[in-house]
Design a protein that fits this description.
With about 210 residues, the protein is an all-alpha fold. The protein has seven helices and two strands.
Length: about 210
């Protein structure tokens, strides 16, 4: 049975707070002992509490003095290299969260632009009239990126796989758009595309992509 998550907040009840203090103090000093033994390092612990007349130390006064003397004689850069306070720790956490948020935003933007690209190719026009210049630039970059990718695959002789893959992607994006976007009147079905030539030029490739054939 897993232990339930403890709420990190000041304990108002004096008895409960003292009990928690004694339990956590023993556990903390035990962890210091374990990390010193398992990793072969010099460590010490000093705990000041309101319930003891003297601070709790580990392993001994001489051991604590030895570790502190070694720390103070180390270069200043080594002393503060990995030292953090509450403010710097929170800044690091906030920075990581902001980085994850920017990455997630970019992924969502790419998915939305890809869905819009397939909708525009199926309709033969831009389906949203209220797009900003930034959204139009993103859509143009997405189309250019896919055209370049299709061109590279066709040059390598993989044109048939390109057609099947883009048809599958169009079906997936269409299904997603039906779930996530407002309902719209059904679009007229396009005639089936003619078989692609053996060696299409760049203009034909671009036209086929815009019509949703590849």
């Amino acid at each position: 049975m897993t232990r339930k998550k403890v709420k990190l907040a000041f304990i108002e009840n004096d008895t409960a707070r003292k009990t928690t203090y004694n339990k956590r103090k023993k556990g903390l000093l035990k962890k210091v002992n374990e990390i010193s033994t398992l990793c072969g390092i010099e460590a010490c612990g000093i705990i000041y509490g309101p319930y003891d007349p003297q601070p709790e130390i580990w392993p001994s006064p001489s051991g604590v003095e030895k570790v502190l003397t070694k720390f103070k004689t180390a270069p200043e850069f080594d002393q503060s290299r990995r030292m953090v306070d509450q403010e710097s720790f929170l800044k690091q956490r906030i920075g990581k969260a902001e980085k994850q948020l920017r990455r997630q935003w970019a992924d969502n933007k790419e998915i939305e632009t890809t869905m819009l690209m397939f909708q525009c190719l199926s309709a033969g026009k831009v389906v949203q009239n209220d797009m900003s210049m930034g959204d139009l630039n993103d859509l143009s970059c997405m189309i250019d990126h896919n055209l370049r990718k299709i061109g590279r695959r066709i040059e390598s002789g993989d044109s048939e796989n390109v057609i099947h893959q883009n048809e599958s992607e169009s079906q997936v994006m269409a299904a997603q758009s039906q779930v996530q976007l407002p309902m719209e009147p059904p679009l007229p079905l396009l005639p089936p595309p003619p078989p692609p030539p053996t060696a299409p030029d760049n203009d034909e490739i671009e036209m086929m992509s815009r019509l949703g054939w590849i």
